């Protein structure tokens, strides 16, 4: 009796001067946050990669716009971002269009499996390989590619050790990953409820800290440019030099001062939000500023600046700061949608048994005179 109670008792929280630091990094947490980020991140990866399907050879082939000779010459350039010329499995395809097409659609299949939570220990690792491989090409290089790689890395890290070395776990689950991550798993037993996980908490914390550093660095980098100091930096996104016409410029002259004031307000607000990001990102009472800023960034980037990918990545990074209780409330609101019920925290009580198990339980109760439990 006492041994069973001691096994089910939660671990004693750490105490001492470094207790808060230890709990922040190493306290086992509900993996609902990691699962929700996996679903949203997988959809983001699919949204990013699918539009390339029509021009695989031109964009990724070694005979395409950026061919093997260009890679060789660019490797000697100085000051090039490292992610633009990193390793890629696409190099193994050589100049074969068939091999490149096969790798692309296999990559899409792996992203779908990872989004659905199937065999995440393997599909998570392959997702990271896929994201790195398809971003290592200057022909499709984008400023937010580094954030995509960062997200894929921490999702991989969290699922790589999630549910590892559980007592009595089948070897298949140890190699491929636990079944608790399956998005459409409709098992109703209490044992399918996700257990608190150290790897889930550590991966999300690392993502939070890394994203906060990226936001702070981006804000400080803006301060080094005179365009942001003067407040005219948004002008170059709204009116690219090669697309702006004389008629557009003439139409702005009527309200030039007001227009410049709005652009300055946007520039200063974005810079201040990024620099102050680490100060409010972890504070629950500042959630409106965190999520409102992310939603506003998504809206402005997509509708005005023509940057459709940066906004969703910003929202993903900000959503990583939600605690499991907030994710459960959000999952409850969305629980009526098919498939999202697996993101909810299951109650300890299991629903009534169905099918053959219910019939077997009824027959056993009738033979013993007891009640079906």
Considering the chains and any ligands shown, give keywords for the structure.
mainly alpha, disordered C terminus, globular, 373 residues
Characterise this structure.
The chain has 19 helices and no strands. The protein is mainly alpha-helical. The chain has one domain. The chain is globular. It starts with a helix and ends in a 5-residue tail after the last helix. The relative contact order is 0.11. The model is unreliable at 1-8 and 344-373 (pLDDT under 50).
Please specify the SSE layout and strand pairing.
Layout: H1 2-8, H2 19-26, H3 32-49, H4 56-60, H5 68-74, H6 97-115, H7 120-135, H8 145-160, H9 171-176, H10 198-222, H11 226-230, H12 233-238, H13 246-252, H14 256-275, H15 277-280, H16 287-303, H17 310-319, H18 324-333, H19 355-368
Helix pairs in contact: 3-6, 3-8, 3-17, 6-7, 7-8, 8-10, 10-14, 16-17
Question: Over all CA atoms, what is the radius of gyration?
Answer: 25 Å
Overall average pLDDT? 82
Please report the total strand number as a whole number: 0
Question: What is the CA–CA distance across the termini?
Answer: 21 Å
Outline the low-pLDDT stretches: 1-8, 344-373
**Overall 3D form:** globular
Number of domains: 1
Beta content comes to: under 5%
The percentage helix is 55-70%
| Tally of alpha and pi helices | 19
Derived from helix and strand composition plus strand pairing, the structural class reads mainly alpha
SSE sequence, one letter per element: HHHHHHHHHHHHHHHHHHH
Largest sheet: none
